[in-house]
């Protein structure tokens, strides 16, 4: 049964607002918002702690999410706009347990495409904008990448802005974390996985011939990849830009590179 709430002083609304600032009992949860993203969270079978919906959606919507232990709240339109992280709220927000991070030692070397031998891994080194992280995950998931590894100071893919940009990809694409780039490179080398580094000066993208097993590395928005990665890379890969721009947005460049790597299996 859902509880109607119209005041910010409600204890569960206060707990949600605290959690959105990284405080309180729900600080380690994620907050998918919007019908599409909430459906993806449900499809991923995430544990749903609470449902907040706007009264305009009706009283039946909260009952569609979670289980017997899930808390459900129907909010006035004004109050929902105050808890929403978007300019045009759709009236639905979940409090969910984050998917469990994987460690590099747990990364299973199997392709999402059963009939293919190719293995494709995206590695994000200190990509700090959550929107860029989410957009790259969405592209990787759409193009059939098998996993993503985040290292350095990369943004949390379960932060609300990243979740919105990923449109559910963060719930389905296997994600792994390893702070040290050197350890990921060592692991790739031990598994026969080439290290393909996005760089300003390297092999022109049209001339690139991928290895069967490849990891594509994307670096920080301002600095690019670390010198360590560039020095140890199997290949440095460059997108030719005949139009004259000096660089591309990191997420745009990543999508172009990912598509090129996957052309043989699309």
Describe the structure.
This protein is of the alpha/beta class. It folds into two domains: about 5-95, Ribosomal protein L30/S12 (60s Ribosomal Protein L30, Chain: A, 2-Layer Sandwich), CATH 3.30.1330; about 105-260, 3-Layer(aba) Sandwich (Alpha/beta knot). The protein contains nine helices and eleven strands. α4 packs parallel to α5. The radius of gyration is 20 Å and the shape is elongated. The model has no long low-confidence stretch (mean pLDDT about 95).
| CATH fold group of the largest domain | Alpha/beta knot
CATH homologous superfamily title of the largest domain: SPOUT methyltransferase, trefoil knot domain
* Count of discrete structural domains: 2
Beta strand %: 15-25%
CATH architecture of the largest domain: 3-Layer(aba) Sandwich
Shape field: elongated
Series of H and E elements? EHEHEEHEEHEHHEHEEHEH
Number of helices: 9
What would the average pLDDT be, to the nearest integer? 93
**What structural class do you assign from the helix and strand content?**
alpha/beta
Q: Whole-Å distance between the termini?
A: 46 Å
Q: Enumerate the strands of the largest sheet in spatial order, edge to edge or round the barrel.
A: 8-7-6-10-9-11
Largest beta-sheet characterization: 6 strands, parallel
CATH classification class of the largest domain = Alpha Beta
Number of strands: 11
Please state the CA-atom Rg, rounded to the nearest Å: 20 Å
What helical percentage do the residues reach?
25-40%
